[in-house]
Amino acid sequence: MRAALTLPDDPLPLRIAVVIPCYRVTDHILPLLARIGPLVTQIFVVDDACPEHSGQRVQAQCADPRVQVLFHERNLGVGGAVMTGYRAALAGGCDVMVKLDGDGQMDPALIPEFVAPLLAGEADYTKGNRFFDPEGIARMPRVRLLGNTLLSFLTKFASGYWNIFDPTNGYTAIHADVARRLRFEKISPRYFFESDLLFRLNTLRAVVQDVPMASVYGDEVSNLRISRVLFEFLGKNLRNAGKRLFYNYYLRDMSVASLELPLGLLLFGFGCIETLRVWIESIGSVSAKPAGTIMLAGLPLLMGLQLLLAFIGFDMNSVPQKPLNPRRNTRLLSKLQALNRVEGVEHG
Predict the structure, then answer these.
(1) Residue 144 confidence (pLDDT)
(2) Alpha-helical regions (H) of the chain
(3) Is the model's pTM score more than 0.70?
(4) At residue 225, does pLDDT exceed 70?
(5) By three-state DSSP, how is residue 305 classified?
(6) With the C-alpha atoms ordered 6, 7, 11, 16, is the resulting torsion angle positive or negative?
(7) How many CB atoms lie under 10 A from the CB of residue 76?
(8) DSSP letters of 190-210?
């Protein structure tokens, strides 16, 4: 395996590992590997019981000494493949782990932009966001655009990261010290992996940062079917939301928001039921309802809504802001910038 990249007279190596789960990406994986620059020191290709034998093709045709192919005897899903790569990268002593999909939609040239916030002590986890560029949004298939928009709002509430978007984006980077705190066996192993990982990171109070990016949509075929996972994602996000709210507002700490949520739900629910009852009774009635009856239905509804909005505002302001690893690693950050300049010259 290729040694960690160093600069002259610098004893501190920078180890960046790339993890690539492979399933039905035989036509795309080799061109993707060829585009990964010298900034990366380790590449773990995880063949997730691929019926096209992607891993064997990489072994036979890829001469890059950085590449190591890992095989699953049975399909574990994209999350299971990524966690296999994470374990191997951590065992190899990496500083940062970057995850790329094997279908070629993610540009490896963006790796420094994903890694820099981690080494600068600004974030613990970075992820791509394809919604920054309006032109990029216009190129996105309509089904993916709608699905990602709906999932983004749902995942914001479930994970507590109201400051991010595009939660199912698979272009990510995580600091090794943060990854070691995660319990991989608890993370959803399949398509819910990215959303579930955000929830797990919030329980650690890790800082997550979006990185603007564009995706290239070619002839690749997505294995994700919105109709198949819609209700699964909905149920799991609601479950994670319940866990997060309990952990953050009742188990670990209590605040005014701990009272706003249950009171808001109680009053809003009572107001909705009472409003519905009054409306049903008024159907076909020739006499107007007394003002007190209408107020009894409307006032709890408005008060409950106000309390719920106040809670959401409090929750949005509670997004983790202090990284778990706030120490700015100036030496590694300088190394990243220098190596990136060298790589840019080589590619130019």
Answers:
(1) 67
(2) 26-34, 54-61, 77-91, 111-119, 134-139, 142-159, 176-179, 193-203, 226-246, 256-282, 291-316, 330-347
(3) yes
(4) no
(5) helix
(6) negative
(7) 19
(8) STTHHHHHHHHHHHTT--EEE
State whether residue 51 is helix, strand or coil.
coil
Q: What is the dihedral of CA 296, 302, 306, 307, to 10 degrees?
A: 30
The angle that helices 142-159 and 226-246 make with each other, rounded to 10 degrees, is 20
Q: Quick one: tokens of 59?
A: 């072994």
Contact 21, 102 (CB under 8 A): yes
Give the per-residue pLDDT at 214.
79
Query: Token pair 């009635």 is at which residue?
Result: 285
Q: Are 26 and 99 in contact (CB under 8 A)?
A: no
Quickly tell me which residue has 């706030």 as its tokens: 326
List all residues 6 or more positions away from 249 whose beta carbon is below 8 Å from its beta carbon.
Answer: 255, 257, 258, 261
Query: 286-328, pLDDT tens digit by residue?
Result: 666 676 677 777 899 999 999 999 999 999 999 999 998 766 6
DSSP string, 169-190: ---EEEEHHHHTTS-GGGS--S
Contact criterion met (CB below 8 Å) for 6 and 13: yes
What pLDDT sits at residue 150?
80
Helix (H, G, I), strand (E, B) or coil at 143: helix
